[in-house]
Amino acid sequence: MSAPAAAATPTAPPPVDLVNVQIDGVWHKFPKGTRMIEACKQVKKEVPHYCYHPKLSSPGNCRMCLVEMGMPPRPAPGQEAEKDEHGMPKIGWMPRPVIACANTVAEGMGIRTESVLTQECRKGVMEFLLINHPLDCPICDQAGECRLQEFSVEHGKGESRFRENKVKKPKNVDIGPRVRLDDERCIMCSRCIRFTAEIADEPVLGFTERGSHTTLAVHPGKRLEHNYSMNTVDICPVGALTSTDFRFQQRVWFLSETNSVCTGCGRGCNMEIGARGDTIYRQTPRENNDVNSTWMCDRGRLDFHFVNSEFRLTDPLVKTGSKHEISTWKKSIQAVAEGLSGLKGEEIAIIASARMTNEELFFVKQLARILGTENVDVIQRLGEGDNYLSAADKNPNTLGAKEILGIEPGSRIAGITELMSRGRLRAVLALGENLLKVGFERRDVEKIGFLTTLHILANATAELSNVVLPGTAYAEKRGSMINVTGRLQKLNKAVNAPGNARDTWEILRDLVVACGGSNGLYSVEDVFKGLANDVAAFNGLSYAKIGDLGIPLLETGETIPLLEREKERKSKGIIVG
């Protein structure tokens, strides 16, 4: 019998070909093919730019990234190249600048980002860009995060020699349902045009006319209305494209930005929540090359207005007779415990939500264990995904519910519905779901002897409930979720919950204690530690290890279409990525 073949040794990645490049007098090594602007960025030498974006092709049309470049002269036959004090070939500098965004580094290359020639070129380019630009910074939404403002201060002349009237262009143009155009502000960087053509596959934008009269426009019969249109607002370096929803709502320097993840679908796109006080004003994508690159769908970024809703539940309610009355948390929690007391496990059902965090689901599991019920499930939300970021699973934490509760999400709903219709359920806990909106019939819900709702908004199910507990929305709490690719990510608190609403995990913890469970968990970190000890998938992890970008936890085999296309474009050298 022959000996088993030895396991194949994994092949090492091909060696990276490094080249020596001098930047502002200092020699560095970079992989061959690195763009000059990226090489400068790596050594903290900023090269101002407008048209360049690492996720888009480089047209080189704004000319703001001009730098001085040089190469060692070719020595005469029989002679050696002249060396500098570092022992490197001496550089011969070109008499004209080159753009750093589209040129790549080479062996022995020299780059000057702060030379007299470079500075004069930037001043000249900036002067041209400002010739027809309107002086409306005080009313521009981009003020405070405008690259034109920043670079005009750092690299501009501080005065204009232009003595003619500025060219007037269309303002406040409706080019789509979620984006407005102020054409006078456009500096023709073409980022928006390239995004719609290269990323969104709907090339509806383009330039018309020539020279100083060049105008950004929508193609005849078209509109900028696809589900990723608002990314053009993010990448516009000036205030030419603005969000209809955010327009004139708030000055950006008043906003506090909080890192979090979108809960609009199972993708879990990384985002920043912009809030002032306890009001959310906008959500913008945050770069994570393992989840959403630097993009985000319009539906997800606008899915925050319900957090500011006037229909938010702000106090616990206990039904007395036929009316709800405001109660204290202690009395309302005790009312739930009394309503569940003495019931058998098969008489109780817990309908939780795959919109809940892992920490909240951990307490749902504990509560089910104490009550002795297996009638536990979450509501499925399946829709249509797209070929970019949007996932077909519209719940943000289906995998978390599956791992923690030990169920196939949605598999027990039919059984719970049948028990409810037959009047076999004497108590139901609706946690984060409006039962009358997710398929349950009112006549069946009315058969429940004791109904408790934990939700953030007033709803029809809450109206029928014996006890109503106001919880927290995604932007009002900390916690973790697992997206459809199996990545564990964190939510962070951006605003405070209204009124006397409490953190959902704290409410569930108090319910567990009131029903006979143990206490001792006082922070999300403590809860996650308990979760890591109880659920195999989380073993060995801590809340701190998740980090701002998350960590891979489960292998699902699902890929992200937009990232796959991005990898392909990067391998072809079309983008930096």
From TrEMBL:
Residues 255-311 form the 4Fe-4S Mo/W bis-MGD-type domain. Its cofactor is [2Fe-2S] cluster; [4Fe-4S] cluster. The keyword rRNA processing does not apply. Keywords: 4Fe-4S, Iron, Iron-sulfur, Metal-binding, NAD, Translocase. Pfam families: Fer2_4, Fer4_Nqo3, Molybdop_Fe4S4, Molybdopterin, NADH-G_4Fe-4S_3. Residues 117-156 form the 4Fe-4S His(Cys)3-ligated-type domain. Belongs to the complex I 75 kDa subunit family. This is NADH-quinone oxidoreductase subunit G. The lineage of its organism: Bacteria, Pseudomonadati, Verrucomicrobiota, Verrucomicrobiia, Verrucomicrobiales.
